[in-house]
Design a protein that fits this description.
Distance between the termini: 78 Å
Structural class: mainly alpha
Number of helices: 15
Shape: globular
Largest sheet: 3 strands, antiparallel
Number of domains: 2
Strand content: 5-15%
Strand order of the largest sheet: 7-9-8
Order of helices and strands: HHEEHHEEHHHHHEEHHEHHEHEH
Number of strands: 9
Radius of gyration: 26 Å
């Protein structure tokens, strides 16, 4: 019996040393000697030599000078990989897609073929009439209660602004409490719909957004201001504009511009997606650099082509672009955006 136990123990010890020590060390050595870049997470450095990210994990880019990745259900958090798992009938999916489409969709035909619809959304919003009725913002808040509450909770500036509004509108708050006795002390998000209805009545054709200005001493100061133009208007109110303009023909866009990947962290976009973003990216660089937009567009298109790839050297699949890699190439060519 003791001989069997001794042999079993030695076999176990051998297996532990082989599988838990020797094998990992061999793989570590092979990785560090022959594939050090991949073995260490495919981390890339910026122009200052500091790490800026991994080519394997998507990250957000907010400046118009950069190409944007696919939407992420994990908010680009590498420790929280997840898909959206939203059905086509889910309101949250429709709202997210609509907000993405507003600033980027173009007319498909007619006298405005190829033009962005954003300016028309702004003009429609400023006229302040939806489905023949006034006060677009009030209607939006009533139709999209969750969005109105989310707007309040998104930023501390929003919360502070609504809190200040509550103090200066005691009669409106009292009426809200009277109509909602189960909420005797409403917080900013509780009163979001009433807040936007008040804003719509007092400032028709206007919405609210953080705006950064230069204050005394050259310091940047961000405050909530009334707006009637910009990407916030185009994205938030695109869905309502579309319902008001059902017969306008709009261009199709690449599917990966509005759909998340299974992991929510896909670092790649299709070449078609990148090409759709090309005009925005190149025109912004041209404005920053004060150069000919046609020349900059050709240069950026060449950078895209050089950084594109397809699986198995193009044998299968479609051409792809690594978003971090292409944006680093742009930064290397043109410098840091303003």
């Amino acid at each position: 019996m003791s001989k069997i136990i001794k042999k079993s123990f030695l076999l176990l010890l051998f297996a532990v040393v082989l599988c838990c020590v020797a094998y990992p060390l061999v793989l570590l050595a092979i990785g560090q000697v022959f594939f050090p870049f991949q073995a260490n997470g495919s981390i890339v450095n910026g122009s200052d030599g500091k790490p800026v990210g991994s080519l394997l994990i998507a990250q957000p880019f907010t400046k118009d000078e950069y190409f944007q990745p696919r939407p992420s259900a994990a908010s680009y958090d590498g420790s929280a990989s997840a898909s959206s798992a939203l059905a086509v009938s889910n309101y949250a999916l429709r709202d997210r897609v609509a907000r993405t489409l507003g600033p980027i969709v173009r007319y498909a035909d007619g006298p405005k073929a190829g033009q962005l619809i954003g300016l028309d959304i702004e003009g429609w919003f400023q006229r302040d009439a939806y489905q023949g009725s006034p006060h677009i913002v009030a209607q939006w808040a009533s139709m999209h209660t969750a969005d109105a509450q989310a707007w309040v909770n998104t930023d501390s500036l929003h919360i502070a602004y609504v809190s200040d509004w509550q103090k200066t509108h005691p009669d409106v708050v009292s009426q809200f409490i009277k109509n909602n006795p189960n909420t005797p002390q409403p917080g900013p998000s509780d009163i979001a719909v009433t807040f936007f209805q008040s804003i719509s009545n007092d400032h028709p054709g206007r919405f609210l957004a953080p705006v950064t200005d230069t204050g005394a001493g050259g310091h940047a100061i961000t405050a909530i201001q009334l707006i009637s133009t910009g990407s916030d208007i185009q994205s938030i109110f695109f869905d309502m504009w579309r319902l008001d303009h059902p017969n306008d023909s709009l261009q199709n866009i690449p599917g990966d511009m509005v759909t998340t990947s299974g992991s929510g962290l896909d670092p790649h976009i299709t070449f078609q997606n990148a090409t759709y973003q090309l005009d925005r990216v190149s025109s912004k660089w041209a404005a920053d650099l004060k150069r000919n937009p046609v020349e900059i567009r050709k240069e950026v298109a060449d950078i895209l082509e050089k950084n594109s790839f397809a699986p198995f050297d193009g044998f299968i699949g479609e051409k792809m672009i690594n978003v971090l890699q292409i944006n680093l190439a742009l930064r290397s060519r043109y410098g840091t955006p303003k």
